[in-house]
Specification:
About 50% of the residues lie in helices and about 10% in strands. With about 130 residues, the protein is of the alpha+beta class. The protein has a two-stranded antiparallel ribbon. It is extended.
């Protein structure tokens, strides 16, 4: 169990990690070296299963959605080379010595921060 002081220090370390990852991923995006791919999804609206006499009930058009995503191999490489080896990441991990199972959560946090920053999505660390 963390004390209030330890909790505040952990929050500050986590915020510093987030800022570090965002800066690295944003710089990589600005240089044009983020491996972004367009991904298409085809979905159908979920029809209701209420009985109706209307025979056109199941004739719904497929919807096509397209979004950008950072190729997972390139993102994993970025995490291994730049995030996990960073001082900010090590600082957060050291604070979790009493609970090593949560180290995976820190990696996931770094992954999500990098992914969002690499795609140019807004990230607000003020709520942390």
């Amino acid at each position: 169990m963390m004390t209030t002081t330890e909790s505040d220090e952990f929050r500050d370390a986590l915020r510093a990690l987030g800022e570090s990852v965002i800066a690295e991923a944003s710089a990589l995006r600005a240089s044009g070296r983020v491996d972004i791919r367009r991904q298409k999804y085809i979905t159908r609206p979920e029809p209701t299963l209420w009985y109706t006499v209307d025979q056109t009930m199941m004739n719904v058009e497929a919807e096509e959605t397209e979004e950008e995503e950072w190729a997972w191999k390139a993102l994993d490489s970025f995490l291994s080379e730049r995030v996990v080896t960073s001082e900010a990441y090590g600082n957060v991990i050291r604070r979790l010595q009493d609970n090593p199972q949560k180290a995976d959560l820190v990696r996931r946090f770094g992954y999500q921060m990098a992914y969002n920053a690499g795609l140019g999505l807004f990230i607000d660390l003020g709520a942390c």
